[in-house]
Amino acid sequence: MKNLNSIGRYLFTVPFALFGLMHMMMANDMAGLVPSWLPGGVFWVYLMGLALIAAAVSFVIQKHTYLAGLLTAALMMVFVFTIHLPAMIGGDMMAMSGLLKDIGLAGGALMLASNYKQD
Question: Which of 46, 90, 99, 116 could form a disulfide with 66 if both were Cys (CB 3.0 to 4.6 A apart)?
Answer without folding.
Answer: 116
